[in-house]
Design brief:
7-stranded parallel sheet, binds NADP nicotinamide-adenine-dinucleotide phosphate, about 40% helix, 8 helices, globular, single chain, 9 strands
Length: about 250
């Protein structure tokens, strides 16, 4: 008879985390290493990835998910893989569609959508050699909601949401698990990047409420990645208690 309890699997094998130089990706490397995975930290800022890898005892590799050559170089370093966590991405600007900067929209699509596709495609052979392959995509509540000024980012994250759902269907016969994590407000470098380094404007995003920490999201990712083999957490949204939707928040 099948067990009636759901117990976490002891984590082992290699996990690749993109966007590991900061925020959710960085915290995820720590959470996965603590759970027992060997980790590869990858992002454009190699120095930060190397410092993190030294801290957790993993490897660091440089990666620009918008550059096919960079993704191929990364893939050539990895023979067998159990888990990919796609955290590389982010938003640029908060302009209305009337004022949209097409180049910034293109960059957001490149990193948040094509980046996930490129890395998945290049690493699927290594993942298929894994014992229990899993893919986690860090989407956003912006993948299922719209808000004024968010058009470029929400369009990209809706794209990432569609990629996650398509992968779930396409990889079903191979028992490769696919999970999309959709965070709300998380205090990371996200807003600093969105507002081109404007610290005051970035701080304003989190003012008057208690936002998620990167570690809150990382713990959820590690939880999803350590479920028994018959459990796939398809989609999980995680928000601060003070946030109901992308724009409806309760601020002090
Ligand atoms: P963050 O602190 O700015 O981290 C973003 C990470 O993505 C950095 O490590 C950055 O590294 C990496 N990255 C960006 N472009 C890249 C590229 N072309 N190639 C490789 N790596 C790239 O922000 P975060 O909050 O942790 O964001 C992580 C993910 O969560 C993103 O996909 C974001 O859209 C999503 N998210 C964030 C929030 C939030 O409120 N913070 C909410 C929902 C979803 P390098 O610059 O070193 O390459």
């Amino acid at each position: 008879m099948r067990s009636l309890t759901s117990v976490s699997e002891p984590a082992s094998g290699l996990a690749l985390v993109t966007g590991a130089s900061s925020g959710i990706g960085e915290a995820t490397v720590r959470a996965l290493a603590a759970a027992g995975f060997e980790t590869i930290s990858a992002a454009r800022r190699l120095d930060r990835c190397e410092a993190l890898a030294a801290e957790v005892g993993g490897r660091a590799l440089q990666l620009d998910v918008t550059d096919a050559g960079s993704v191929e170089r990364l893939a050539s370093e990895i023979e067998q893989l159990e888990l990919i966590v796609h955290s590389a991405g982010g938003a640029l600007g908060l302009e209305t569609i009337a004022a949209a900067d097409e180049e910034r929209w293109r960059q957001m699509y490149e990193s948040n959508v094509l980046g996930v596709v490129r890395v998945t495609k290049a690493l699927l052979p290594a993942l298929r050699r894994g014992r229990d392959p899993r893919i986690v995509i860090v989407g956003s509540i912006a993948g299922v909601e719209a808000y004024e000024g968010g058009g470029g980012y929400t369009a990209a994250k809706h794209g990432a949401h569609a990629v996650a759902q398509t992968l779930r269907l396409e990889l079903l016969p191979e028992a490769i698990r696919v999970t999309e994590i959709a965070p709300g407000l998380v205090e990371t470098e996200f807003s600093l990047v969105r507002f081109d380094g404007d610290t005051e404007r970035a701080a304003g995003v989190y003012e008057g409420l208690d936002p998620l920490r990167a570690a809150d999201v990382a713990e959820l990712i590690a939880f999803c990645a350590t479920r028994p083999g018959h459990v796939d957490i398809d989609y999980a949204a995680i928000k601060p208690t003070a946030q109901a939707t992308a724009k409806i928040t309760h601020r002090r």
